[in-house]
Design goal:
Elements (H helix, E strand, L loop, with lengths): L1 H14 L7 H12 L7 H13 L5 H19 L2 H16 L5 H9 L12
Helix pairs in contact: 1-3, 1-4, 2-3, 2-4, 3-4, 5-6
Length: 122
Amino acid sequence: MVVALAGGAGEDARVRWYLDEPPESVSDYVERAYNFCGGQCDGCKAAMAAWQIVGFTSSRGAAADQWRAAELEARRLCARADVKAAIAELVEALVGTPKMDGKNAEKILARHVRFGELKENK
C-alpha cells in the first residue's frame, strides 16, 4: 500500500503541502476493490492491498482505516531528508530525460537511500 501511495506522498513532500485523499474517494476505491472492479491505478492497488491486509470479511471502514494508515506511513517516509533528496534528484533527471530505465533510476536513488532501508521492520 505504501508503495502505491508513495507517488502522491512524494509530491506532497516535495511541495510541502499535504492533501488527503477525500473520504468519498477512498470509499469509492475500497468499494471497487471489494467488488473486484478496480484497475491498475495507484488508488486501486492501495485499496486492494488494504483488503488483503484486513481480510475480505472485515468492514469497509477497516479497509479505509488501513488506507489512511498507509497514507501516513508513505508521507512519513517521503518526508525523510534522504528520501526527499532522492526524489528531487530523480525528478531533475526525468525533466532532462523523460525516458529512463529502472537501472538508471535505481542508481540515482541508491546515492541517497540504501536498498531495503525503507522496508517495514517486523
